[in-house]
Specification:
Elements (H helix, E strand, L loop, with lengths): L1 E4 L1 H6 L3 E9 L7 H21 L10 H12 L10 H12 L7 H13 L6 E2 L7 E5 L5 E2 L9 E2 L5 E4 L4 E4 L4 E2 L12 E8 L4 H19 L2 E7 L5 E3 L15 E2 L9 H7 L2 E5 L1 H9 L5 E6 L8 H15 L3 E6 L3 H4 L14 H15 L8 E5 L1 H4 L4 H8 L4 H5 L2 H8 L6 H17 L3 E5 L3 H13 L6 E5 L24 H8 L7 H8 L4 H12 L4 H17 L1 H16 L9 E2 L7 E3 H7 L6 H9 L3 E3 L10 E3 L5 E4 L3 E5 L3
Parallel strand pairs: 1-4, 15-16, 15-18, 16-17, 18-19, 20-25
Antiparallel strand pairs: 1-12, 2-10, 2-11, 3-10, 4-7, 5-6, 7-8, 8-9, 12-13, 14-19, 21-23, 22-24, 24-25
Helix pairs in contact: 2-5, 5-6, 16-17, 18-21, 18-22, 19-21, 21-22, 23-24
């Protein structure tokens, strides 16, 4: 039997990546204890998902979800109406708080789908007719809906589908599976495809495939084989009919063209990349030999740049090393309006003074990654402050309200009756016009910026320019796995002290380590793959976290600071030693007793009495090694007393 991806799919989506697990001899009616353990695992994954995403509206901010919405839009599929299987499953789990048990094999696949946030389907191999292929539908293709008995429906030509030689098995790529070839308790041979993207989550695809294969073997007595397909390896084949662990199917035989040797351009187009519009177009530009104008727009809405934003800056540096012109555009006009790309409510407008103050700090921070002497620094007040109201109206006439409302977060807010201000609606038009004024050949941004960047392509065509290519970089979460946010206190900033940077990076979730190496550093890919293999082979993840932390500190503070941060962590955190240099506090007026909240504020261990009380109540404060329980307690002071907040913030009392 053969599974393949048609060339037409890779023409549209060069970064498509799919893993396959062939499971033979599945016992899908195991003993009750095994079935119950699988159900417990499913419900545990639901609980973990709900903790990660308290509201379903937060799902679309995750790149593993949003990438499918973006892909559906490119195909002309209404993403808010036809949800990818992983988004639909996740929404049901978050809303209901549990998922019904179907049968052990399906429950296992649903649990891992939620764990890795990946579309993970399942097909009964004995019910498939001929080979299975991911392709575009042809005229006359039929589909058997899951909620009907004998009816079939015609599939429009050009729709991406999973299909065998008889009919379409899954419509709209990863949307809905038909009733034929579905897994039941009587199913014994199953094919599980796991869909993903090179540069975004191919590591997660591999992990999901390996884990479901292991669990099927351990819990359901299956014999499993695993393979992976991409643009260079578009097909795999295996021998059908194996039904027991003693008669494993043959290892899938990959049927690809020979891979070409990767060069710097290949690396630029894949490392840390979530998607490109279009891959062939951008590759041709890069191989033409001409210098490209590569644009990144940043709205300076805050004073600090966190490591999430550094992903795009690192990609700009890759372009810069290849000799291309980097245009760093500061949204000194649009920054006052605010980008609504990932917002579920209207954001207050900033003043020009606030934006200008932030620009100064941004420029210094950007220069830590890019060569500032080779950057074209621009500000969009250059043209928007000169634009008349009539010119603005003419600019807006190139778009419709329907186009703007189609944007996911606008659509969600509109349906919920939440306000959408006019300045938010026009934001994509303004960002698109930036590309016209800068004559950009390439624009870089996260997957959440795809709508805005596509507006640039549309306007450039209107103004007679060659449309810019779009490179969407991967969007990473904070080390704790949540969205990186100042309000959540989980951000890692590129200019914060080396010791704090190092300590925060050591809190990185194991699943994010290699993704961080890929997107935040320029450690060679061969070394990353070697580390990935070592970690999957059982080596302690902490070893790799320490290297990751050192690499990051080295980039922004230098090798010596990285060494000192590592040594400091071992002394102060691992061995609980008090730092040699601790800020001293001398109580005013010879006081020998103070309210604990006042003491924490005065020693700068808390910003306010309210924050001080919270730190105490959470157990984050120690005084000479003891944790106080009452934030309102009076503390008797003595010379040399040590106060500590968390693991890294100290103060020493010095009495005169």
């Amino acid at each position: 039997m053969r599974f393949s991806v048609a060339p037409q799919i890779f023409e549209l989506f060069p970064n498509y990546y799919v893993g396959g697990v062939v499971a033979s001899g599945v016992t899908n009616r195991p003993d009750p204890a095994t079935a119950e353990s699988i159900n417990r695992e499913l419900q545990a994954q639901v609980a973990e998902l709900r903790q990660r995403f308290p509201a379903t509206t937060e799902l679309t901010a995750d790149p593993n979800i949003s990438i499918w919405r973006d892909a559906f839009k490119i195909l002309g599929i209404k993403a808010s109406e036809f949800l990818s299987s992983i988004e639909a499953l996740s929404r049901r789990a978050i809303k209901a708080g549990s998922l019904p048990t179907i049968n052990p094999a399906v429950d296992l696949s649903n649990a891992l789908s939620l764990k890795y946030l990946l579309p993970l389907g399942g097909h009964d191999l004995d019910l498939l007719q001929g080979d299975l292929e991911v392709r575009l539908a042809c005229q006359g293709d039929l589909f058997s809906p899951p909620d009907a008995n004998e009816t079939t429906e015609a599939v429009p030509a050009g729709e991406p589908v999973y299909a065998d030689q008889a009919e379409v098995r899954t419509r709209r790529w990863v949307w809905r599976e038909g009733r034929k070839a579905r897994i039941t308790e009587n199913t014994t041979n199953i094919f599980f495809p796991v869909d993903g993207w090179v540069g975004l989550n191919e590591g997660l695809v591999r992990s999901a495939c390996e884990e479901i294969a292991r669990l099927l073997e351990e819990k359901l007595g299956a014999s499993c084989q695993v393979f992976y397909l991409d643009a260079a390896n578009p097909a795999a084949a295996w021998e059908p009919g194996a039904t027991s662990r003693e008669s494993k199917p043959a290892m899938p035989a990959v049927l690809p063209p020979v891979k070409k040797e990767r060069d710097q351009i290949d690396n630029l187009l894949t490392r840390g990349v979530a998607g490109i519009i279009t891959y062939e177009e951008l590759e041709a530009k890069l191989r033409s030999g001409r210098q490209l104008r590569v644009k990144l727009g940043i709205d300076p809405t805050g004073p600090l740049i966190h490591i999430g934003r550094s992903v795009a800056l690192q990609k700009l540096r890759d372009f810069q090393r290849l000799g291309h012109k980097i245009i760093m555009l500061f949204g000194t006009f649009t920054g006052q309006i605010g980008d609504a790309s990932d917002k579920q409510s209207t954001r207050p407008m900033l003043t020009p003074a606030q934006v200008e103050a932030n620009v100064q700090t941004y420029k210094q921070q950007v220069s830590l990654i890019l060569d500032p002497n080779e950057v074209e620094w621009r500000f969009n007040t250059e043209w928007f402050n000169q634009m008349s109201f009539q010119q603005g109206i003419e600019l807006m006439s190139n778009f419709t309200v329907a186009q703007m409302i189609e944007r996911d977060n606008f659509n969600d807010r509109f349906k919920a009756g939440k306000p959408i201000s006019l300045q938010e609606i026009v934001y994509p038009v303004l960002q698109g016009y930036d590309s016209v004024m800068l004559k950009s050949d390439v624009e870089i941004g996260g997957t959440d910026q795809m709508f805005n960047m596509m507006a640039g392509r549309q306007l450039q065509k209107v103004y007679g320019q060659e449309p810019q290519s779009i490179l969407m970089n991967k969007m990473i979460n904070a080390p704790d796995g949540n969205k990186m946010s100042t309000s959540l206190g989980n951000g890692v900033y590129i200019t914060e002290p080396a010791k704090d940077q190092y300590a925060k990076m050591l809190r990185t979730l194991d699943a994010q380590i290699m993704e961080y190496f890929e997107t935040l550093t320029r450690v060679p890919e061969s070394e990353i793959e070697a580390m990935r293999a070592a970690m999957e082979g059982g080596e302690n993840p902490l070893h790799f976290k320490k290297r990751l932390a050192s690499e990051l500190v080295k980039m922004y503070h230098g090798p010596e600071a990285a060494r000192e941060a590592a040594e400091s962590f071992e002394r102060e955190i691992v061995h609980k030693e008090i730092p040699t240099e601790v800020p001293e506090f001398s109580p005013p007026g010879g006081l020998t007793e103070m309210d604990l909240r006042d003491l924490l504020v005065e020693t700068r261990l808390a910003a306010s009495k309210k924050e001080a009380a919270r730190f105490v109540e959470q157990g984050g404060i120690t005084i000479d090694g003891e944790k106080p329980a009452d934030p309102k307690a009076k503390v008797a002071l003595h010379d040399g007393m040590i106060l500590k907040r968390g693991n890294r913030h100290y103060a020493r009392i010095k009495l005169n």
